[in-house]
Each structure stands twice: as C-alpha cells, then as structure tokens.
Amino acid sequence: MALHSSEYEEIERLAISPLYARPRAVQGMPATAIPEDGMDPLVAYNLIHDELMLDGNSRQNLATFVTTYMDHEAKLLFAETSDKNMIDKDEYPQTAEIEARCVRMIARLWNAPEGQSAPGTSTTGSSEAVMLGGLALKWRWRQRRQAAGLPTDRPNLVMGINVQVVWEKFCRYWDVEPRYAPIEEGRLQLNAEEALKLVDENTIGVVAILGSTFDGSFEPVQEIAEALDALAASGGPDIPIHVDAASGGFIAPFLDPDLTWDFRVPRVRSINASGHKYGLVFPGVGWVVWRSPEDLPEDLVFHVNYLGGDMPTFALNFSRPGAQVIAQYYTFIRLGREGYRQIQQVCRDTAMYLASVIADMGPYELLSDGSELPVFLFRLKPEVTHYTVYDVSAKMRERGWQVPAYSLPDNLTDVSGLRVVVRNGLSRDMAELFLADLARATQFLESLSTTLPHDPSHTESFRH
Ligand SMILES: Cc1ncc(COP(=O)(O)O)c(C=O)c1O
C-alpha cells in the first residue's frame, strides 16, 4: 500500500530529528523480547555503542592476554571477511588455502620435522585447540592399549595445578582423570620430578605449559621430556607431551630461539597456541599442530568437500568466521619474523621495566619478572597488613586500569598477587602513566590508618 504524504513528512521529520531526541532513544533498551517494530540503524548503533562504553577501555585491560590492537589494514580485512564461514572450504577455497598456509608457517615456526607434513588446524582459540590435542592423546593411548590387549577405562592426564581451566574442562568433558602436580613457594610450575611422580601406564600424556597463565613462566619442556625419555628407556610407559603454548608459542620462537620446547624435542607430539594472544589477532583464533600424521588418529578426522576434492577437518565447532584466520595471515606477512621479534621484545622490555619499578616501590615483591612471557605477578610484602592486593586492584580501576588480583592454586591459596599482562600497544608512555597511577594508589592505601572493609568476593581464585 502506497504511503500518504503525511507519512512521508513524518519519516522526514524523524530522519532529521536530533539523534538522542528520537522516540527510541528516550526509551529503555529492549532486554527480554525482540521488539515488535524496528528502529533507525543510526539510533540502534549509537545506543548499543554507548552501552558498551561501560566495558571500559580494552587497551587499559592488563588482565587479558587477548590482542586489543591491530593495524588499520588488518581491521579492514577483518571487517571485509567476517561473513566468510571457515567450514565452507568448497565455497571459500581461498580462505581454506590461507588457513593451510598459516598451518604450514606455524609448523615451521615450531620446528616440525622437515619432509613430513605436520597436520594442524585453526580453532576458535586455545580452548578448542586443547580439546583437540587432548582428544588425540586419549585416542592414541587407547589404540596402543587396545593393541596390547590392556584395559582402557582409566585414562589420566598429568599437568601442573597451575594449568588453565580448559584442561580441567577437557578432563571432565572427556572422562579423563586429571592428575595435578602441586606448586610451592619459589616454583609456580610443573617440573620433571613432580611429573614423574604422577605418571603411570594409564597416562595419556603430560601437559607442559609454555607461559603459565598465573605468572608467565615457561615450564621446562626439555627437562620433562628427558625424564620421560629415561622412564621409557627403563621399560616404563612411553608418554607423549602436549605443549600448551597458548601464549608462549608466539613469544619463544622470536625471543628465545635456542630454548628447546617445540618439535625439536622428539617427545613433543602436539602444540597449541592462541593466534588471538601473542599471535596478534583479535579474538578468536587458535592453532593446534601435530608433529606428524600418525599423532592425529584418522578416526578423529572428518572429511568435507573441497574444490570437488577431499579436505580433512578436525574441529569441535562447525561454522565460525574466517576473518580471524585471514587477519592471522595478514599479520604473518605484514610483520614477518623480524616484525614479530621487535614487537615481542618491546613487550618483554616493557614488562621487565614495569616489574623492576614496582619492585622498588616499597610494599611490593615480585613473584615473576616478565622475562619469559611479558607477564609478571607481584604481591604485597608480608608486613603490609592494612590493605590487600584486592584493594590495589580496585583502586586502579578508578583510573580505568584493570589489573586482576587473585590467589594462587592449591598449596599456595594463601598467596594473593596482582598480574600484569603487557601486550602490543602498551607503549612506554602508557607504561609510565600506569606506574604513576599505581604509585598514587599505593600512596593512598599506605596512608590509611585503618584496614579497609573486607570484600568476600575477593577470596575466589582466578579463572582467567
Ligand atoms: C596456558 C593457557 N592455555 C589455554 C588458554 C585458553 O586459551 P583461549 O582463551 O585462547 O581459549 C589460556 C588462556 O589464557 C592459557 O593461558
């Protein structure tokens, strides 16, 4: 039905009315049911954009490992390709090709043996990558046990108690007993001795973390591998290692090329990393690569049609955007190894600088110093009793900084610290501003004559 001229006038009147004076802008936001009528896209955009201001500024979020800065050109590609479905290999063959190039580049970065193709895939992040890595370990263990006529009902996985929560999830979802090695004062990660105490014939693998979420430290992959080599050589079980290099997988190859943690260690059968952490891409993309085709059991792999041919896939999700994979490829070719090296070195230098200044402030002591991941953990000295790390964290929030305070896992739950994650984009200038704010916050808390009221929510351990 044609519109009447009065309706045209009404539409025109609304179109030129001031944005925040339009009818929808002076009402509350729909929160429970899809509204009957739509609204002007500009009004909808601005209302949502404004609500999101309450999230704070992601660049001041020193809690997250996830990339918060990308080049303008990367953002352009990201926006242009967010309609591509990663799973539609046949419909988007060039996106599939770019994913395959990234897998090859990452396998080479992690020193996969030459001459055999290292299978791998992009994922939504390290969490999915970890699930896939863990599943391959479980399948391989079961195959070995079945071939030997041995029971397969009690698989276990050995790791430090400091693992990221995704490993706990993996064990619960896939019915694997988690065996956590304890941490202690002065050692916040797994070592060979503790790993050896927990392994047995039912161990599907040992997880070593390159870049512990809690303090940024690298676990000694080579040392753990040598201990497992000796165990196997003495007739014990032959146990593979999966390296959770969620953050370190894009740090160590550029800054510590001589550190042997990757496929140069024969016992390392698979590695995951988050492209959206130090891979320098917005969320969410992760990667998992196996040393050789035999490390990825064929019955975990599904086959999809690709250019009329066959494309093997291994994923928990089906549809997901291709944009992140394309942005990863952009970042690889835009930066090159040298660009990555420079960025990660600046991050490490900034982290170590921040850590050293904080250590000199007086009330703080370092639990790590940013010399592995550009991440450090610090706590209050025992003599500081009238305020806590949670108070420091809350005070820093007043200036927009997000610095999480949390207690360490079992054995050290009485130790609470503050963690700073330095990422690409935290310039020296921003670092100085952060330090000035921390000094002011600390001065204020030091000047208090009474203890601040206790907030019970502050006793939870960190699940980041
Ligand atoms: C060591 C480690 N593994 C796995 C994960 C999960 O990674 P993602 O957020 O990419 O799923 C994290 C996240 O911080 C991590 O630090």
Index terms:
464 residues, alpha/beta, seven-stranded mixed β-sheet, four-stranded antiparallel β-sheet, 12 helices, 37% helix, globular
Main beta sheet: 7 strands, mixed
From the helix content, strand content and strand pairing, which structural class follows? Answer: alpha/beta
Strands of the biggest beta sheet: in what spatial order? 1-7-6-5-4-2-3
The helicity comes to 25-40%
List the topology elements.
Layout: H1 5-16, H2 41-52, H3 72-81, H4 93-109, E1 120-123, H5 126-147, E2 156-160, H6 165-173, E3 177-181, H7 192-198, E4 203-209, H8 221-233, E5 241-244, H9 252-255, E6 268-274, E7 286-290, E8 302-306, E9 309-313, H10 323-359, E10 364-366, E11 375-380, H11 389-397, E12 405-407, E13 416-421, H12 428-447
Helix pairs in contact: 3-10, 4-10, 7-8, 10-12, 11-12
Bound molecules: pyridoxal-5'-phosphate.
If you had to describe this structure to a student in words, what would you say it looks like?
The N and C termini lie far apart (56 Å). The chain is built from twelve helices and 13 strands. It is globular. It is of the alpha/beta class and 464 residues long. Strand 2, helix 6 (165-173) and strand 3 form a beta-alpha-beta unit. Helix 3 (72-81) runs antiparallel to helix 10 and helix 4 (93-109) packs parallel to helix 10. The strands form three sheets. The protein has a seven-stranded mixed β-sheet with strand order 1-7-6-5-4-2-3, with helices on both faces. It has a four-stranded antiparallel β-sheet with strand order 10-11-13-12. A two-stranded antiparallel sheet has the order 8-9. Pyridoxal-5'-phosphate binds at residues 65, 125-127, 130, 164, 166, 209, 213, 244, 246-247, 274, 286, 464.
